[in-house]
Specification:
The chain is α/β, with parallel strands linked by helices. 33% of the residues lie in helices and 25% in strands. It contains eleven helices and 29 strands. It has a six-stranded mixed beta sheet with strand order 5-2-1-11-23-22. The chain has a four-stranded parallel beta sheet with strand order 15-14-13-19. It has a three-stranded antiparallel beta sheet with strand order 6-7-10, with no helix packed on it. Helix 7 links the parallel strand 13 and strand 14. It is globular and about 75 Å long.
């Protein structure tokens, strides 16, 4: 395959992995192109599930996709490594040395040539320079961070339960900064954990001893979503005993303390930052590619970067215009899914000498899941343009279908059906929470 075009995709998140899967089937299988995926990790977990991993509601081991195994099955190559630079003239990307958990070098720094480059490196938390945030907050940008949070959470429960058993009244204060979808859903998962753990022997702590606060700078939670959805979510959080604070930006984070703008303080032994995202910082210094203030690469409607037609970007790391609204495409999983579809068609057309496919974002609505309690959301009507508010079991089914659609894109219908069956068996055989 030395004489065929080389398409390199950097980033194995939801969009990147769906893209290489499609390209592998359409181009790699027939050896019309060589497809390479680059990622700093060895496995993929759908990012919207990380808050469930953190709370213990989901076993990540059962939901990981091995890049190497997936690549073999879907006709692309996998290269481990973190992108560190770009040489546009030579058409090469630079990868940092790959090291093991002890810091020993496994593979040295290297360069990978490309004919077409696609950047799908996602986003990271944006702490907006808040004093103390980096030092005292936990983040959920990666599977590693989600697993670390889960370990700390279990240890905190265990410690508090032991002290309560000794006769000392105990509380565990947890604060979530940011009431977007991740913050709201995490609060519900943590409430579930506080109610489930006593079943497994930690019965000296009562659910009310776990005090959960959600802090939002805007005047309502879920500020990017419709008002009715925000109001329904607020009511549900309050039913779960979650303290909701709105209209209060965080001024400073200290050890076991969150300071708000009006100098009000909230006790917090565990503080999670879930307020805002930005693209990775290295994108701002990639051989002259244009970025915005959030480090996103500026692209046109065909997802080509403004300074180089051979380089594409999509997902959270790209600022793609929406001509109808004058805004950029929102950083959401459904947007990355749609962009992967459009870009796959563009890259196939490119080899056939056909025109690129302009990307047009279609908002199908939003769904917020409150763990096993309920789900609320709005669905956008295709004809009327109006949104339909849904909740309960119907909303829950729509929510679950989002992840299954992602699995279908990666594995096909038959294999996804087998995965669904295995999930059902696993739930029947294992505890409802991951306890280690």
């Amino acid at each position: 395959m030395n004489n065929v075009p080389h398409i390199v995709v950097v980033g194995g998140g939801a969009g990147g992995l769906e893209l290489v899967t499609r390209l592998g089937h359409k181009l790699g299988r027939r050896q019309r192109a060589r497809i390479t995926l680059v990622d700093a990790t060895q496995t993929h977990v759908w990012k919207p599930l990380l808050h469930e991993v953190a709370a213990g509601s989901l076993d990540a081991n059962a939901n990981e996709v091995s890049f190497r195994a997936h690549a073999r099955r879907h006709h692309y190559e996998f290269q481990p490594g973190r992108m560190a630079g770009l040489d546009r003239q030579a058409q090469e990307i630079v990868l940092q040395a790959f090291v093991d958990t002890n810091g020993a070098e496994v593979v040295p720094e290297r360069r990978i040539p490309y004919d077409t480059l696609v950047l799908a490196v996602g986003s990271t938390a944006n702490d907006f320079g808040t004093p103390g945030a980096r030092e005292h907050c936990l983040f959920l940008d990666s599977l590693t961070e989600a697993r670390r949070f889960h370990g700390l959470l279990l240890n905190a429960f265990l410690r508090k339960n032991y002290l309560a058993q000794a006769g000392t009244a105990q509380t565990l204060d947890i604060s979530i900064i940011g009431a977007g979808a991740t913050g709201v859903e995490l609060a519900a998962e943590l409430r579930l954990a506080s109610r489930e753990l006593p079943v497994y022997g930690m019965n000296n702590l009562k659910p009310d001893d776990i005090r959960i606060s959600v802090i939002e700078a805007a005047d309502r939670i879920l500020p990017a979503l419709p008002q009715r959805l925000s109001e329904a979510a607020t009511r549900q959080l309050k039913r779960l005993g979650v303290h909701v604070v709105t209209g209060q930006p965080v001024k400073e984070v200290r050890e076991q303390l969150v300071v708000l703008r009006d100098d009000q303080t909230i006790q917090s032994e565990m503080t999670i930052w879930a307020a805002g995202i930005k693209a990775p910082a290295f994108l701002a210094d990639l051989d002259g590619l244009e970025t915005n203030r959030g480090n996103q690469l500026v692209v046109n409607q065909t997802l080509q970067t403004s300074q180089d037609d051979r380089i594409y970007a999509f997902g959270d790391c790209a600022a793609c215009p929406q001509p109808e609204t004058g805004r950029t495409v929102p950083p959401r999983a459904q947007a990355a899914h749609q962009q992967a579809d459009a870009l796959a068609a563009t890259l196939v057309n490119q080899l056939a000498g056909k025109a690129a496919v302009p990307f047009i974002y279609r908002d199908y609505g939003s769904l917020i899941n409150f763990s096993r309690y309920t789900t609320v959301g709005n669905l956008m009507g295709n004809l009327s343009g109006r949104s339909l508010f849904i909740e309960g079991r119907v909303a829950r089914l729509f929510y679950l279908s989002l992840y299954r659609m992602h699995q279908v894109a990666l594995h096909g219908f038959l294999r996804t059906g087998v995965i669904w069956l295995m999930d059902r068996i696993s739930r029947a055989m294992h505890p409802r929470l991951k306890l280690h």
